[in-house]
Amino acid sequence: MGEMDWSVVWKYREALWDGMLTSLQLFAIALAGGIFFGTLLALARLARWKALSVPAAGFVNLIRAIPFIMAIFWFYFLTPMIVSKFTGQQGEAVGPFTSAVVAFIMVESAYYSEIIRAGIQSIPRGQPSAAYALGMNYRQSMVHIVLPQAFRNMLPVMLTQAVILFQDTSLVYVVALKDFLGAASKAGQLTGRIVELYLFVAVVFFLVCFAASWAVKRLQARLAVSR
Amino acid sequence: MDWKVLLEQAPSGGMTYLGWLASGLFWTLAVSACAWVIAFAVGSVVGVARTVPLAAARLAATAYVELFRNIPLLVQMFLWYFVMPEVIPKDWGDWLKQDMPNLLTLPFAAQFSLWEFTAAVLCLGLYTASRVAEQVRSGIQSLPRGQTSAGLAMGLTLPQVYRHVTLPMAYRIIIPPMTSEFLTIFKNSSTALTIGVLELTAQSRQISEYTFKTFEAFTAATLIYIAITMTVILAMRALEKRVAVPGYISQGGGH
């Protein structure tokens, strides 16, 4: 076992921090987009109108059947093509980061739609019925009665999924985007110190995710008491 | 669309591009199956350890689950493949990296060595074991406490209670979540492409790079993934029906 030289982490701190910022950016956009489109997908799947529910179910099942990396490759390939078709621009109209963002929003919206669908279905039928009886329409009963309760019920699961999403951002490595892991990998190639850098990445991910999972568990316990 | 491209001769391996996909599928299944054996065995031990009345065992098992669950799979893949050979004694590390047999002689000629395959299997297996352990634990804890007590009251030892009472019930209850764990390992095996294992996703990307028929190559791989997923779900539903405990778990499928 060779000597460890941890100074390399300090030497490349700026590149690593930039990588972490890319990871966090991707995480935040994918989380917001995933929950937003996931809610729409869940509502579409629960709609009585088949023209809405069947394609939504098809999309969700398709995304869930293929590996995350395969989905990244797909959207990496499709996004620039579709964008240039709409804008008429050729070639580099869309950068790699945008393609990665689209891929993550699409995949996460499929995962989140399943969580949200389960949350909506956990609300007793009497609740929307009562809302209708009070004269609310579908939109009002969803926005004011069903969704607030559903989101509260599924909050712990959604946060757990967020921790998984943060870990999954490392998969953009496959399209050579410089996220946290990508930055460490690059620094490792330049210095030959991959052992220290990969261990550092592992420790950082572990600390962040362990603390976040622990906080989610605490929250879950508190929600359970107050119900 | 030009689907005939898949029947053209590929530049290596002495087969068509369709052959490359078949080879990729073979390695996807091989990695998944070997990793599943580890995940199931280690996951069962860790899951049981989290439920036994022995604080040290519970603590060790909890530490295992937290450690493997909170580091991204891709980072773990790099730790096994790049870091592990460097931190063990130098001779062993060199042996792993250089002297492990090349897999060219095996069916569906692969261009990577046994070390890439082993690292991928170890990584996926031990990672998924932490998830399997959680399923096993929740299966055991979902059983009424009276079952263990009754077993002990009848004079069985604790290992006997697990062997004859708790586990036979728990494993049946967790068939549906275990099915999705298996599908997860199957999908996660694509992560192995980052360390050079030419599995299905890697092959489809390689075909796209050689032929520029990206749409066709990705569609073919996607269809194969869907076909396998459907097969596993149907097979596990059949198994679930066969081993259902009368009057206990939802019978006749549908969960």
Write structural notes for this entry.
The complex is a heterodimer of chains A (227) and B (255). Chain A has one domain (21-180): MetI-like (MetI-like fold). Helix content of chain A is 81%, strand content 0%. Chain A is built from 9 helices and no strands. The radius of gyration of chain A is 21 Å and the shape is flat. Chain B has 255 residues and is mainly alpha-helical. Helix content of chain B is 71%, strand content 0%. Chain B contains 10 helices and no strands. Chain B has helices spanning 17-49, 55-69, 73-87, 90-99, 114-141, 145-153, 158-173, 175-188, 200-211, 214-243. The radius of gyration of chain B is 22 Å and the shape is flat. The chains are: A mainly alpha (227), B mainly alpha (255). At the A-B interface, helix 4, helix 7 and helix 9 of A face helix 2, helix 3, helix 9 and helix 10 of B.
